[in-house]
Design brief:
With 234 residues, the protein is mainly alpha-helical. The protein contains twelve helices and no strands.
C-alpha cells in the first residue's frame, strides 16, 4: 500500500494539470467497486457451487482479514485529502468543505443501510459466520473520511494521550494481532477478577481491549527506540 501511494504521488506531481484530483477519484471509484464486488463473491460461489480453482483462490484471499486490496480505497482518499490540503481548500470551514462532509456522511449512511440489509439476507461475505468484515465496509471508508476532514479543521489542541496513541498508531496496528486470542482471556487463577467478570461480563471485554492496546503500545514504544526498527513502527 505504501508503494502504491508513493507511485500515485509521483505520478500526480508529474501531471499537475489534472483538475479536481480526477485520477485519484477514478482510482477511488474503481477500488470501491472492487471491494464491494469482492464482498459478494462468496455467496455467488456458494449459490452456483463453482469449482473453478481461480475463483476459490480469490475467495480465500478475500476472506483474509488483512487482505491488502481492501485498503486500496484509503490510499486514494488520503491522496485526495492531501492534495486539497496543499491547495488551501481545507484552511477554513468553507462551502466546499461543508458540502463534502455532508456528501460523505450521506454515503456512509447509505452504505451502512445497504450493508446491513444485504448481510442480513446473506448476500455479502460473512467471514466465520460473522457480519461483513469491517475492512470491506464502504460505510467505514466514507465515515472515516468525513471525520478526517473534521479533524483537519479542528483548532482544538490535541490531548497528550491522543497524540501518544497517534504517534504509536502504526505500531499498535502491527502488533495488536499478537495480543488477540480466539477464545476469551481466562482469569480463573485470579478469584477477585473471576467474580467481578462473572457479575459484569462487559468488563472482561474492556480488560482484553486494554491489555491488547497497552501491550501493542509497549512494543511499538520499545521498537521505536531501536535504530534498526524505528522507521517501521513510527
Amino acid at each position: 500500500m505504501t508503494i502504491c501511494s508513493e507511485i500515485l504521488f509521483l505520478f500526480r506531481d508529474s501531471r499537475r494539470q489534472l483538475q479536481e484530483n480526477r485520477l485519484s477519484y477514478y482510482l477511488l471509484g474503481i477500488s470501491c467497486l472492487w471491494v464491494f464486488s469482492c464482498s459478494t463473491l462468496d455467496p455467488i460461489i456458494n449459490q452456483i457451487s463453482a469449482q473453478y480453482s481461480f475463483l476459490k483462490a480469490i475467495n480465500s484471499l478475500i476472506k483474509w482479514d488483512y487482505n491488502p486490496l481492501n485498503f486500496l480505497p484509503y490510499v486514494f482518499t488520503a491522496a485526495i485529502t492531501a492534495q486539497e490540503y496543499n491547495d488551501g481548500k481545507l484552511q477554513t470551514f468553507n462551502k466546499f468543505v461543508k458540502q463534502k462532509i455532508l456528501y460523505l456522511a450521506a454515503l456512509a449512511l447509505i452504505f451502512f443501510a445497504l450493508e446491513w440489509t444485504l448481510t442480513s439476507n446473506r448476500l455479502l461475505i460473512q467471514v466465520d459466520q460473522a457480519p461483513l468484515d469491517h475492512y470491506m465496509r464502504l460505510s467505514l471508508l466514507f465515515g472515516s473520511w468525513s471525520l478526517l476532514y473534521i479533524a483537519l479543521l479542528s483548532k482544538t489542541r490535541v490531548p497528550a494521550m491522543i497524540k501518544l496513541v497517534s504517534n504509536l498508531s502504526l505500531g499498535i496496528y502491527g502488533f495488536h494481532v499478537f495480543f488477540i486470542f480466539k477464545k476469551p482471556m481466562s482469569f480463573e487463577g485470579i478469584p477477585f477478577l473471576k467474580n467481578v467478570f462473572q457479575n459484569f461480563p462487559a468488563l472482561q471485554i474492556l480488560a482484553a481491549f486494554l491489555i491488547t492496546l497497552l501491550g501493542s503500545m509497549a512494543l511499538a514504544f520499545i521498537f521505536g527506540k531501536i535504530k534498526l526498527t524505528k522507521k517501521w513502527v513510527t
